Amino acid sequence: MKELTEKEALSRVAAFCASAEHCRQEVEEKLQKWEVDEEAIQRILTTLETEKYLDEDRYCRAFVRDKFRFSKWGKLKIKEALYVKGIPSSVAWHHLNEIDEDEYLAVLREVLDSKRLGIRAKDEYEFRAKLVRSAMSRGFELKDIRLCIEIPGDE
After folding, report:
1. pTM to 2 decimals?
2. pLDDT tens-digit profile of 102-151?
3. Are 42 and 106 in contact, with CB atoms under 8 Å apart?
4. Longest alpha-carbon distance in the chain
C-alpha cells in the first residue's frame, strides 16, 4: 500500500466515520494501521472531533442502546466493552443509567426465559446456578437477576 498523505487519510477516515458511529480509539487504530505519523493522527482526530465526525458522547449513547436492545447485554458487560474502547466510566455510566429500569428487567427476563429452555440440570439448585451464571455472563448484576428469578433463602 502506498503511503497516504495527511489529506488522503483525513478524507478516508471521515468517510469511515460518516458510515457509522466510531470511537476515537477505533479511528486512531485505523490511522496507525495505515502508518500515518503520530502528529498527523492527532491533527486528523482533532479535525474529526471539531467537524463532529467523531463524538464520544454520541458514540457511547448509540453503543449502549445497540448492545442492550439488539445483543441483550447487561450494564456490566456494556460498561466493560466501553472501557476497552477507551470511553471514560463517567460517560459510560451516564448513558447506562438512561436505560429504563422496567425495560432492563424485561430484557433480563427474556434472556432468562430463553436460557431456561436449554438448561439440563440434575436438581433445582444446579438449574438456578446455571441460570444465574448465564445471566451474569451477559453482564447482568446479581441484584437484578434475583428480582427476575426466585432464589430460595432470598425472602
Report:
1. 0.87
2. 999 999 999 999 999 999 999 999 999 999 999 999 999 999 999 998 75
3. no
4. 67
DSSP per-residue string spanning 100-137: -HHHHHHHHHHHHHHHHTT---SSHHHHHHHHHHHHHH
Q: What is the DSSP letter of 147?
A: H
Digit-coded pLDDT (tens) for 23-43: 999 999 999 999 999 999 999
- Nearest CA among 145, 65, 62 for reference residue 111: 145
Say if residues 109 and 148 touch (Cβ distance below 8 Å): yes
Cα–Cα distance for residue pair 96/50, rounded to 1 Å: 26
